[in-house]
């Protein structure tokens, strides 16, 4: 099988490329960052420089289409945030794409939508308040003594405030887009990653958060057996009939 991976800058992409190569597949990568991590790997047959997905979405999708057609790609697997731009152009890509449509991804990536949808399916999530303005923020601080504030859209915990004071929150928050306030829960942090197909988990890993880049992304991964984490992920994937990669962190 000819497999195209995007996000070659990410260590996980290099790991996937090596795994697919060992399994006998032919691997290609597409990345806007020049000189990225995966580029020199002998597990990759060819690496393609593509336009930046965020700034040049249409050109990015057109470049992927050309790569797919010219190299007879059977499967495209996004690995980083470009998945949202790829999902926007699913109908234009002439191969199987291992990702959900954008409308479905938004149910998961938007933190408020995620909480609402999980709650409707009786999945436990932190108590959450939607924050659109200063009045909502004051309401959240009246409701909890300890809380976390997060933009509805973010990556690597950017702009997230953990246990802020009211004064800090008032001086920091910019209401250019909505936020969520959540009750702060004490305990050990775990993340999970699952490969899913038609609502079933086909591969799964759970790992404690032991070291992070800033306050966000974990950068040490050691699998542990955590039945409660697996059951939560399994239920979510089943309820929403997920196909693709699903991470909870």
Structure report:
The protein is α/β, with parallel strands linked by helices and 249 residues long. The protein folds into three domains: 2-99, Rossmann fold (3-Layer(aba) Sandwich), CATH 3.40.50.20; 128-183; 188-248, no CATH class. The chain has eight helices and twelve strands. It has helices at residues 11-22, 57-70, 83-88, 102-109, 111-120, 134-143, 166-172, 227-239, and strands spanning 2-6, 26-31, 44-49, 75-77, 96-97, 128-131, 147-151, 161-162, 179-183, 190-197, 200-208, 244-248. Strands 3-2-1-4-5 form a five-stranded parallel sheet, sandwiched between helices. Strands 6-9-7-8 form a four-stranded antiparallel sheet, with helices on both faces. A hairpin with a 2-residue loop joins strand 10 and strand 11. Helix 4 (102-109) crosses helix 5. The chain is globular. The two termini are 31 Å apart.
Write the layout of secondary structure elements.
Elements: E1 2-6, H1 11-22, E2 26-31, E3 44-49, H2 57-70, E4 75-77, H3 83-88, E5 96-97, H4 102-109, H5 111-120, E6 128-131, H6 134-143, E7 147-151, E8 161-162, H7 166-172, E9 179-183, E10 190-197, E11 200-208, H8 227-239, E12 244-248
Parallel strand pairs: 1-2, 1-4, 2-3, 4-5
Antiparallel strand pairs: 6-9, 7-8, 7-9, 10-11, 10-12
Helix pairs in contact: 4-5
Keywords:
single chain, 249 residues, alpha/beta, Rossmann fold, 3 domains, 5-stranded parallel beta sheet, 4-stranded antiparallel beta sheet, 12 strands, 32% helix, globular
Give a short overview.
The protein contains eight helices and twelve strands. It is of the alpha/beta class and 249 residues long.
């Amino acid at each position: 099988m000819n497999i195209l991976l995007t996000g070659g800058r990410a260590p996980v992409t290099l790991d996937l490329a090596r795994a697919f190569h060992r399994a006998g597949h032919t691997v290609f990568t597409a990345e806007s960052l020049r000189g990225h991590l995966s580029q020199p790997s002998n597990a990759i047959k060819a690496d393609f420089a593509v336009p930046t997905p965020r700034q040049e979405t249409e050109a990015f999708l057109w470049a992927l289409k050309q790569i797919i057609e010219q190299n007879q790609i059977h499967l495209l697997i996004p690995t980083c945030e470009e998945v949202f731009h790829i999902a926007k152009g699913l109908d234009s890509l002439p191969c199987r794409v291992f990702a959900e449509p954008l409308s479905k991804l938004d149910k998961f990536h938007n933190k408020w939508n995620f909480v609402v949808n999980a709650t409707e399916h009786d999945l436990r999530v932190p108590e959450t308040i939607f924050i659109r303005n200063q009045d909502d923020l004051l309401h959240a601080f009246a409701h909890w003594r300890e809380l976390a504030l997060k933009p509805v859209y973010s990556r690597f915990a950017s702009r997230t405030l953990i246990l802020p004071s009211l004064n800090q929150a008032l001086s920091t928050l910019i209401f250019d887009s909505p936020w969520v306030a959540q009750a702060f829960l004490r305990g050990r942090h775990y993340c999970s990653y699952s490969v899913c197909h038609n609502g079933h988990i086909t591969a799964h890993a759970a790992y404690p958060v032991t070291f992070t880049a800033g306050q966000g992304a974990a950068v040490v991964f050691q699998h542990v057996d955590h039945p409660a984490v697996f059951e939560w992920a399994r239920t979510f994937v089943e309820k929403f009939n997920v196909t693709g990669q699903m991470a909870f962190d």
